[in-house]
């Protein structure tokens, strides 16, 4: 087996593994498969963690994960697929970041690993054992890699930034309400 054959086989295995996990995560959100909560439940959860509107956020996240994962596994439109999946995982990592790195503590380890794998596949390409290769790389051109990653990075930064702003505003509102309540209690004690 030549070095090229090993590289292509390794990329195939990485694509199938990462793509399969991403597909499963996305279908939990979209359809409630694999113990997921579907669009309604995931939408409510997305609202509760600051991604609004929740249903639209659940749909976008589910499509990026399921669609990106499917395309990565097939090795089709690899730059766009990898970028979309990496963006979705960046959004998930932002939710888990306050819990630290490790997954057993609720950290971002899992999301970061999937996102990194997806981004690496977008950059390296799918290898010869892929639909991109079979189709002559018509949706896997060199210029597509920086374009897809830059567009996804910009969009993800806006989405996460907007979420963080909402969370900060909600925290400030809670602190102000708590302060007002303390002031009222102090008046009653006098």
Architecture overview:
This protein has helices at 3-31, 38-48, 54-74, 78-96, 109-124, 131-134, 144-189. The termini are far apart. It is elongated and about 85 Å long. By secondary structure, it is an all-alpha fold. The chain contains 7 helices and no strands. The mean pLDDT is 93. The longest helix has 46 residues, at 144-189.
- How does the major sheet shape up? none
In terms of quaternary structure, the protein is: single chain
What is the CA–CA distance across the termini?
Answer: 85 Å
Judged by helices, strands and strand pairing, the structural class is mainly alpha
The shape, in one word, is elongated
Give the tally of β-strands.
0
Give the helix tally.
7
What is the strand content?
A: under 5%
Proportion in helices? over 70%
- Following the backbone from N to C, one meets helices and strands in this order, namely HHHHHHH
Low-confidence stretches: none
Radius of gyration: 20 Å
Mean pLDDT: 93
């Amino acid at each position: 087996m030549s070095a090229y054959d090993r590289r292509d086989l390794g990329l195939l295995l990485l694509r199938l593994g990462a793509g399969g996990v991403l597909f499963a995560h996305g279908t939990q959100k979209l359809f409630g498969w694999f113990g997921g909560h579907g669009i309604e439940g995931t939408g409510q959860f997305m609202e509760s963690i600051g991604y609004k509107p929740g249903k639209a956020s659940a749909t976008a996240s589910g499509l990026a994960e399921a669609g990106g994962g499917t395309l990565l596994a097939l090795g089709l439109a690899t730059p766009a697929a990898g970028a979309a999946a990496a963006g979705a995982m960046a959004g998930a990592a932002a939710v888990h970041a306050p819990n630290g790195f490790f997954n057993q503590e609720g950290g971002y380890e899992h999301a970061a690993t999937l996102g990194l794998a997806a981004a690496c596949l977008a950059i390296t390409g799918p290898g010869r054992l892929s639909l991109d290769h079979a189709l002559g790389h018509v949706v896997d051109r060199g210029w597509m890699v920086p374009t897809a990653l830059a567009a996804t990075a910009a969009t993800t930064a806006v989405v996460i930034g907007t979420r963080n702003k909402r969370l900060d505003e909600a925290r400030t509102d809670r602190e102000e309400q708590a302060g007002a309540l303390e002031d009222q209690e102090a008046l009653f004690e006098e």
